[in-house]
Amino acid sequence: MSTYRESGVDIAAGDRAVDLMRASIARTGGPEVIGGLGGFAGLYDASRLTTMRRPLLATSTDGVGTKVLIASRLGRYDTVGIDLVGMVVDDLVVCGAEPLFMTDYMVFGALQPERAAAILAGVAEGCVQAGCALIGGETAEHPGHFGPDDFDLAGAATGVVDHDDLLGPHRVQPGDVVLALGSSGLHSNGFSLVRKIVGQSGLPLDAPAPFAPVMKLGGALLAPTRLYVKSCLRAIRETGAVKGLAHITGGGFTDNIPRVLPRHLGVGIDLARLPVLPVFKWLAEQGGVAELELLRTFNCGIGMIAIVKPDAIRDVTEVLTAAGETVVRLGEVIPSAAEHRVIYNGHLDLAR
Predict the structure, then answer these.
(1) Of the candidates 162, 178, 179, which has an alpha carbon nearest to the alpha carbon of residue 96?
(2) Using CA atoms, how far apart are residues 104 and 67, in angstroms rounded to an integer?
């Protein structure tokens, strides 16, 4: 007689994993979450949205990419869940939306309840940092599709913004100022190239990081994504001077900034002002990565761009700084009808 467990799927392990996740999920919930864990769908009380004139729901879906391979090799699972939350909620805040709730999807070659619970704890921590509820998810086991130690995760979040408060290209004008918010490291982009360069270097993941000798290489690469939701929402609400935000993820500066500009405008960026983090300098040197490739692949030390009114630079900077952000003025919005709408001036400081 054949059983599901003999085919590689352990239902009991799944039940154990859910039990281990309960406390983490409970951290993220408030009175808006209805029913708790265990239903077929998560429920969220949206009645407070009726105070808005015209509430718009915003949604975003993403994953962590091949960063999970480094986590798997190290057996360290406490940070990639934070990365997952950052990838989706930092996309929501770009339009001015406040994240409301999130769901996640985790898939394993062989389900180990403690590992699943550790990943989920990271997701919950990210939700706490972002101020949103984790109201549901799915944990799956795919033997034959994934190796026993392999896993992947993805998630989706929903937020809300009043129509009159929507940020975007319709607000941006020539002369607006480009402010940059510092990143915590690689975040979750460019890891296929990162893994290639690490392989070429011959360094094991447990070796001291050449760019941060007090840390192990693998641990430094796994530094979790910085979440910008609360600081950006605070700047939006307290100053009324933020016109647009650009989350610097896959595609770097080159591809992401134009997404929040009208077609006839571009930005001029002073690369000498960009605070390049040591990890990117090492990757550039070790991998022979050209400057423009760096700018289109990695965040280079900047995780979010804010486009603001020129007469409100000090106010916005003060609010963001008080919220814990490192803020640098990088350039301004300029007329541009050319194919390349991000104009780089000068060069990155890549000296180690």
Answers:
(1) 162
(2) 17
| DSSP 8-state secondary structure symbol assigned to residue 226 | P
240, 232, 237, 225: which is closest to 324 by C-alpha?
232
CA distance 226 to 311: 28
What Å distances lie between residue 87 and 64, 90, 179, 281, CA to CA?
Answer: 7, 6, 20, 23
| Conformation bin of residue 158: beta by default, left when phi > 0, alpha when psi is -120 to 50 | beta
**Residue 185 phi, psi (nearest 5):** 150, -140
User: To which H or E segment does residue 11 belong?
Assistant: helix 11-28
**Residue 72 placed within a domain:** yes
Q: Return d(Cα 351, Cα 76) in angstroms, integer.
A: 31
Strand ranges, E, within 109-190: 133-141, 151-162, 177-182
Residue 4 within any structural domain of the chain: no
Considering the domain boundaries, does residue 25 fall inside one? yes
Which residues span the domain enclosing 92? 9-165
- For 257-285, the pLDDT digits (tens) are 999 999 999 999 999 999 999 999 999 99
**pLDDT tens per residue, range 94-113:** 999 999 999 999 999 988 88
* CA–CA distance, 109 with 144 (Å, rounded to integer): 7
pTM, rounded to two decimals = 0.93
Cβ within 8 Å of residue 31, ≥6 positions away: 45
Between CA 71 and CA 50 the distance in angstroms is 42
Tell me which amino acid residue 139 is: T
Q: What is the pLDDT of residue 346?
A: 96
DSSP E strand stretches across 163-256: 177-182, 208-209, 212-216, 242-247
Q: What is the CA radius of gyration of the chain?
A: 21
